[in-house]
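Figure 6 in text form: structure in, sequence out.
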């Protein structure tokens, strides 16, 4: 029996190179023993140079995608199972479409388990702030079921690009310094912090948005098993909130008869806004005078998202009060949209600028700054739940959709959002202040966009 050693539990490249050579040489699946690192070989396995490659053959792209996922599973048989499927695909290229095949079924179940674990890590990992000689660092502890840490690294780098953070797991650790990602050895739960001062704010926020009328304990436990609770500050409240759900539901019914749950949402919004005032998620907090949070009714049908506060907004602490905001007010009035009934905010909550003498000149936020601030916009939308969200400009659109888009390609049509709402895209009012050619036509088109948005909001209501 031929022994093959891989460098790591998720060594996809090593497995692929070995599998290609073995399959090309016609080595049967039962004659290969796979191992990771210095793990003990089977009784009759002997590590030897791979055989010279035979004639190559192609496999469906779907198999490569499946292998990328399954290789992260914790089952030690995954390497052998994938190699066995590879050999069968040489003779039956359409095998993956056979949902009744036992091997295909098993590997698909493994891939599903890995994807679920990837989602759980993204959903239930919690950073806690610690002070270091280099400044604040955010540290999180997580215990994955499968070998998904490296696979998930890119997500956390993109999501928290402006933070310095570490993710500790029993298998390995990831460290991001704002510029480069590095790996370290596995850690113990005791190596991670137990809490930080912001957790009291978090608990107030989650208690405020808890809705006992929608409580389904079974569904909650299925989505968020108890094993994740010990790492999440808000779960310390779950028992108390569940126990008091019946009484709270009765109060909600009574409150609904008197005009709804506005006070509950207001308390949650104020809690989030208070935390945002002390935000240090990206370096921009050192630039602006203050955090400029959104404002407007919390039951707004339309939520407008701009780029960032300008000079006047930064000084006053309110969004859209400068020249661009005044132009937006005028355009909304001409379009027949009630400005006071809309919620307005920005994708980035701090003013980014360059000094030119005594003047502060607007500077466009970069991708890391947009992503770092995206969390606050998500909380605003979660609380307000607007039927319609409007992206004013490319920066706002990037924040809403999570990727760079072009205004021309997205403008003037409905874009469904995962939460059930809709997004529309148009230009930022500051564009109309800068444009030189066809200024009146561009303004008329902007007003027409706002008119259609207002009509759509009325239709959804």
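Output sequence:
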């Amino acid at each position: 029996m031929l022994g093959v050693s891989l460098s790591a539990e998720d060594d996809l490249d090593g497995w692929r190179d070995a599998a290609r050579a073995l399959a090309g040489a016609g080595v049967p699946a039962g004659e290969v023993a796979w191992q990771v690192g210095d793990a003990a070989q089977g009784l009759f396995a002997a590590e030897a140079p791979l055989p010279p490659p035979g004639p190559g053959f192609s496999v469906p792209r779907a198999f490569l995608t499946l292998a990328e996922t399954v290789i992260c599973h914790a089952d030690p048989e995954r390497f052998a199972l994938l190699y066995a499927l590879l050999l069968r695909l040489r003779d039956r290229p359409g095998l993956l479409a056979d949902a009744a095949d036992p091997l295909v079924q098993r590997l698909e179940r493994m891939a599903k388990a890995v994807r679920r674990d990837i989602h759980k890590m993204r959903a239930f990992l919690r950073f806690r702030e610690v002070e270091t000689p280099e400044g604040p660092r955010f540290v999180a502890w997580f215990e994955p079921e499968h070998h998904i840490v490296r696979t998930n690294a890119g997500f956390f780098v993109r999501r928290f690009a402006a933070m310095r953070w570490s993710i500790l797991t029993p298998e390995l650790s990831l460290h991001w310094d704002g510029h480069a990602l590095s790996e370290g050895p596995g850690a113990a739960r005791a190596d991670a912090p137990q809490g930080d001062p912001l957790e009291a704010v978090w608990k107030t926020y989650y208690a405020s948005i808890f809705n006992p009328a929608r409580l389904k304990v079974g569904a909650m436990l299925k989505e968020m098993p108890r094993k994740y609770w010990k790492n999440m500050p808000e779960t310390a409240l779950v028992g108390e909130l569940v126990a008091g759900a019946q009484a709270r539901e009765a109060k909600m019914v009574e409150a609904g008869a008197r005009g709804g749950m506005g006070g509950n949402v207001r308390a949650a919004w104020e809690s989030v806004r208070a935390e945002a005032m002390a935000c240090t998620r990206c370096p921009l907090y050192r630039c602006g005078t203050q955090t400029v949070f959104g404002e407007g009714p919390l039951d707004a049908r339309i939520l407008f998202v701009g780029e960032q506060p300008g000079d006047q907004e930064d000084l006053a602490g309110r969004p859209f009060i400068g020249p661009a905001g005044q132009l937006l007010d005028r355009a909304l009035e001409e379009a027949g949209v009630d400005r006071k009934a809309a919620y307005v905010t920005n994708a980035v909550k701090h003013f980014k600028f360059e000094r030119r003498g005594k003047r502060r000149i607007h500077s466009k936020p970069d991708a890391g700054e947009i992503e770092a601030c995206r969390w606050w916009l998500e909380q605003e939308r979660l609380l307000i739940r607007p039927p319609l969200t409007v992206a004013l400009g490319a920066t706002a659109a990037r924040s809403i959709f999570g990727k760079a888009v072009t205004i021309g390609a997205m403008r003037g049509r409905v874009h469904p959002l995962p939460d059930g709402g809709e997004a529309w895209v148009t230009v930022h009012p500051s564009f109309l202040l800068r444009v030189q050619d066809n200024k009146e036509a561009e303004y008329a088109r902007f007003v027409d966009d706002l008119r259609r948005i207002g009509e759509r909001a009325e239709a959804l209501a």
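Caption detail: Residues 199-254 form one domain.
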